[in-house]
Amino acid sequence: MARKAKIVREQKIEKMIEKYSVLRKELLSIWNDSSLSLEKRREARVALARLPKNSNPNRHRNRCSLTGRSRGYVGFVGLSRIKFREKALQGEFPGIRKASF
After folding, report:
1. Is the overall model pTM greater than 0.85, yes or no?
2. What is the spatial distance between Cα 71 and Cα 81, in angstroms, rounded to a whole number?
3. Do 80 and 67 meet the contact criterion of CB atoms below 8 Å apart?
């Protein structure tokens, strides 16, 4: 089980990413638009740098929804490999079974 502080921090980061995603997309599109003037593009880059660090999606870490474990994350179910294996062996995922017995 991950520390509660780690789980709470990830939830705060997710909220911040969601809050600033539209503004971040607009600024990035301005920055990448070569038809605009260089001055306008620089202003967009400076504004992008002023956004909070945690609003960057790169700072998000996938965690298991049950335990908060960050390593061995299985994306299509949102669980760590350990919890995924337990639930798969219990038959909670239709169509998923062990490859060998």
Report:
1. no
2. 8
3. yes
